[in-house]
């Protein structure tokens, strides 16, 4: 049995609890040029609000952070480089004396987390996996790694397209995630790649692993690894072989095995490789 060494920062990084002293909004903020309608959600360092842009009368999403320590400019710089229908569009950014904000596309269909109450039909799971991989491939082609691939970070447009969202933890491939000290880990426990747990530099293969976890969850109605404690889940990511798919889904096992390989050298290297394998007939995707 291998010893498992976890950075002291791991618990709050992965669970997403706010930093001490983080300002959380409980009332609608005042943002010049926008009429804020309602809160959509609150994360570790930011909050999202549905808003009406007064000049265009367009419905948008405002992502806000306190100016002190704001990282939204990085998200803007990354998003501005991407032009792909499977990545959420970032229209603008700004700041005033108190808040920094991003102006983003409003995606009305909710996220995948709300669609995974039960196993999906294989055709649907593979169609969404392909669309999710296209969004990640756009990011990988520009030299970035998402670092937090999970159902809540894929949104559904009204017409049903899956789009990749939340670039707040994205990092240049080969670097550590910005804002994290040496040995710190970022990600979400149920979806994090083994090498991320060990503090490895950002690499596209980590996103592939997390997408493999998501594919398993779509097919089976649950992630491949679970446990009663955080440490149990993380230990399984490091040490446990993925459970086998039911017999009816056995033809998809080779794809999952290539996505969920513990050793990076045995895993599909990036989202483009996932798309290539799907196109080679290892998929029942109707597209």
Protein described:
This protein has 287 residues and is of the alpha+beta class. The chain folds into 2 domains: 16-105, Phosphorylase Kinase, domain 1 (2-Layer Sandwich), CATH 3.30.200.20; 112-279, Transferase(Phosphotransferase) domain 1 (Transferase(Phosphotransferase), domain 1, Orthogonal Bundle). It is built from 8 helices and 9 strands. The chain has a 5-stranded antiparallel beta sheet, covered by helices on one side. A hairpin with a 3-residue loop joins strand 4 (90-95) and strand 5. Helix 3 (122-141) packs antiparallel against helix 5 and helix 3 (122-141) packs across helix 8 (271-279). The protein is globular and about 55 Å long.
Return the CATH architecture of the largest domain: Orthogonal Bundle
Helical content class: 25-40%
- Could you give the order of strands across the largest sheet? 1-2-3-5-4
Distance between the termini: 44 Å
Protein topology:
Elements: H1 10-15, E1 34-42, E2 47-53, E3 59-66, H2 72-81, E4 90-95, E5 99-105, H3 122-141, E6 144-145, E7 154-156, E8 162-164, E9 171-172, H4 194-197, H5 204-220, H6 230-239, H7 253-259, H8 271-279
Antiparallel strand pairs: 1-2, 2-3, 3-5, 4-5, 6-9, 7-8
Helix pairs in contact: 3-5, 3-8
Describe the structure concisely.
With 287 residues, this protein is an alpha+beta fold. Helix content is 29%, strand content 16%.
Keywords:
Transferase(Phosphotransferase), domain 1; five-stranded antiparallel beta sheet; Phosphorylase Kinase, domain 1; disordered C terminus; 8 helices; alpha+beta; disordered N terminus; 287 residues
């Amino acid at each position: 049995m291998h010893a498992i060494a976890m950075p002291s920062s791991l618990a709050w990084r992965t669970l997403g609890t706010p930093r001490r002293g983080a300002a959380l909004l409980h009332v609608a903020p005042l943002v010049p040029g926008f009429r804020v309608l309602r809160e959509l959600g609150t994360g570790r360092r930011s909050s999202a609000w549905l808003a009406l842009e007064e000049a265009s009368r367009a419905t948008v999403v405002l992502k806000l952070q306190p100016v002190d320590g704001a990282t939204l400019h990085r998200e803007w710089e990354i998003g501005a480089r991407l032009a792909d229908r499977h990545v959420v569009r970032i229209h603008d950014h700004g700041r005033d004396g108190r808040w920094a904000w991003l102006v983003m596309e409003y995606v009305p269909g909710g996220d995948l987390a709300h669609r995974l109450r039960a196993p999906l039909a294989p055709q649907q799971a593979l169609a969404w996996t392909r669309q999710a991989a296209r969004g990640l491939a756009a990011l990988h082609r520009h030299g970035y790694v998402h670092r937090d691939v999970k159902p809540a970070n894929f949104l559904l447009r009204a017409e049903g397209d899956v789009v990749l969202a939340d670039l707040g933890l994205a990092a240049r491939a080969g670097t550590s995630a910005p804002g994290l000290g040496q040995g710190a880990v970022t990600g979400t426990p149920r979806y994090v790649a083994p090498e991320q747990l060990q503090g490895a530099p950002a690499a596209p293969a980590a996103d592939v692993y997390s997408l493999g976890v998501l594919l398993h969850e779509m097919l089976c109605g649950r992630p491949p690894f679970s446990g009663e404690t955080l440490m149990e889940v993380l230990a399984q990511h490091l040490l446990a072989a993925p459970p086998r798919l039911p017999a009816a889904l056995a033809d998809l096992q080779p794809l999952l095995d290539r996505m969920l390989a513990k050793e990076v050298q045995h895993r599909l290297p990036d989202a483009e490789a996932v798309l290539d394998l799907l196109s080679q007939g290892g998929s029942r995707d109707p597209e």
